[in-house]
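Query protein
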Amino acid sequence: MSKWQDVERRCNTFRRIALKGMAAVCMAAVTMVSVVAPASAESLLEKIKSGETVRIGYSNDAPWAYSGGSNEPLGISNTVILAVLKRMGATKIEPVVTEWGSLIPGLQAGRFDIISDAMYVNPERCHNVLFTDPIATVTDSLVVPKDNPKGLHSLEDVRDKGMTLVTGSAFASLKNARDMGIADDKLMQVPGYAEIVQAVKAHRADVGAGDYLGLKKAISNDQSLELASPYTQSSKPGNPAFAFPLDEHAAVDAFNAAMKVYIGSDDMLASVSKYGYDKSMLPGSNKTADLCKE
């Protein structure tokens, strides 16, 4: 064997060794990626089809969405969503209760599949979630001490008299109050209706704001408070809907199709009448696409 043949033989050997090493490294990398890379997320429709549990998220927001003594979902919006999901084939439902202000972050983090609380459709929220068709038209109200000693009948009254108003930290009434010109130093933000009632009772706030049914339910057993009557609403009524993750377009379409034949039906109205919902609260012609543009 010549000197050059020997050199070529050794070079070929080195190449084979190097190639084997590179192949081993590649195989290891592929194995690592296959272990680390998560499987593609299962869609909500796939979960329903396969009989998996559907998780609904809500705050304890009576009479819209709250839990009973056995942790069962109760309230207007929970009643509606359970009926519609059943029509879609869902058989297992798991309630997940959280604070109102944590509902959208919780949905985005995958803690639950749908927000079942009565969340008003507005442009800001439409950037973060997919809303279904509306399920109601809801007016606001004010809660005041018995006999309304300060004569508060509108947000304008609250503003002009320099009163302190308490409302939920993510409630539509907070935005309405700001839009009406009530200064931030006159606004108290709390988690929900129970805290609104306590703030007014303890005289930490002069008046509380929220949706009519929510406030009515919150003071139903309290003779020291009442709803302002008459009340003049300066803002448009709210239109609550259910919220899905942004990538669940197919699920929202299927949900709307199933809900269309349920909303306003005798069955639906009979089921939610005990919570104060009646025909006057039906969503009418309001469309989510339009509400997201306002």
